[in-house]
Design a protein that fits this description.
- Helix content is 50%, strand content 9%.
- By secondary structure, it is an alpha/beta fold.
- A six-stranded parallel sheet has the order 3-2-1-4-5-6.
- The longest helix has 20 residues, at 150-169.
Length: 354
């Protein structure tokens, strides 16, 4: 095996600083001095304190925000697990690149950039804005054998880390996870079942909108994939390689890379949370750097978040992916910081604490 990818991963993990509890406590003290009852801003206060602990600063500059959309195809689509054909993956990649997808609209509203990465699309794509980091031309059918080799999984993780390193060096301070890949809820359900012990009946949802018959088939496919590959739940990279996807592996790298660069990473929905669970099992040091954006309509999502220890900011019954929920949550990050920076304290406003 080429150890280059493993070295990239290990180097990134070694760069992750411990959460700065002192800075978080100072942020909480400041929040408690503002003209409001203590704790009355709820999760906005918690977000502000978490950002302080991540950055080590009371007023971190989180202006530059980017959502990284990883795209890859899945061989398991041969099993009829999706309401959409695999051809939609490359078509949607071009839609992202041309600014026409939901995540593009929401990113423009939030003042954020969208970076679309071909890490495993089963097509030859060319576009001036496309970031090409292709590891595979779609994964293999995991119902018949491993989706990827271990080396491919590590290469995809390394690609995510290196991309975040480049973006952080260019001044990006907040990252969000996005993805595109027909069939990727099936892979995410398999990851969730292996790493949390959930049965496929509990982890498999309706994805892009499949009916009862298709969902039953999807549950069977997840069961067969786990039985055929026998992934080791104590080895997250083994799980990722055998029943994951290239774009999920890329997002594992994005999450670890963000933590290595001292940046918060906003986790999108079910697929992104599967990547977050893998990242947290590779190293628990990533957990304090993660913010959960929303609770997806996928039934297994809440259990995935609980396994990581994350609490979502919002619940809008979304199930689109792309990073849409994560980008929406950028507004809450901005709000949390603005409140900390601009609200008067009881002392400065001459308001009695009672």
């Amino acid at each position: 095996m080429n150890n280059k990818w493993q070295d990239t991963l290990e180097s990134a993990v070694s760069r992750i600083r411990d959460f700065d509890h002192k800075a978080a406590e100072q942020a909480q003290q400041h929040s408690d001095s503002l003209t409001k009852p203590p704790g009355s801003l709820g999760k906005l206060e918690a977000i502000a304190c978490q950002l302080a602990g991540i950055s080590g600063q009371l007023w971190p500059d989180m202006t530059r925000k980017t959502v990284i959309v990883m795209a890859g195809d899945h061989g398991v689509c041969e099993e009829g697990v999706s309401a959409f054909p695999p051809a939609v993956t490359p078509q949607m990649v071009l839609n992202f690149l041309n600014g026409g997808a939901a995540v593009n609209v929401l990113a423009r509203q939030a003042g954020a950039d969208v970076i679309c990465v071909d890490i495993g699309v089963n097509a030859d794509l060319e576009h001036p804005k496309l970031v090409s980091r292709k590891v595979v031309r779609g994964t293999a059918n995991m119902a018949k054998g491993p989706a990827m080799t271990r080396e491919q999984a590590l290469q995809a993780i390394a690609a995510g880390i290196e991309l975040v390193d480049e973006q952080a060096a260019a001044g990006v301070r907040v990252f969000a996870t996005g993805e595109m890949g027909i069939g990727n809820t099936t892979a995410s359900s398999a990851i969730a079942s292996v790493l949390t012990g959930l049965s496929p009946e509990q982890s498999v949802g309706r994805g892009t909108g499949i009916n009862d018959e298709a969902r039953a088939r999807k549950i069977d496919v997840v069961k067969r994939s786990i039985a055929v590959n026998n992934p080791d739940p104590t080895d997250p990279i083994d799980v990722l390689a055998k029943v994951g996807g290239a774009e999920i592996a890329g997002l594992v790298g994005v999450i670890i890379g963000a933590a290595a660069n001292g940046c918060p990473v906003v986790i999108d929905g079910f697929i992104s949370s599967a990547a977050a669970l893998v990242a947290s099992r590779i190293t628990e040091k990533t957990k304090p750097y993660m913010l959960s954006s929303h609770l997806s309509h996928e039934q297994g999502h809440i259990k995935l978040l609980a396994a990581i220890g994350l609490s979502p900011m919002i619940q809008l019954e979304m199930r689109l992916g792309e990073g849409t929920g994560a980008v929406l949550s950028f507004h809450f990050i901005d709000a949390a910081l603005k409140l900390m920076q601009e609200m008067a304290t009881f002392e400065s406003a001459g308001v009695s604490k009672g």
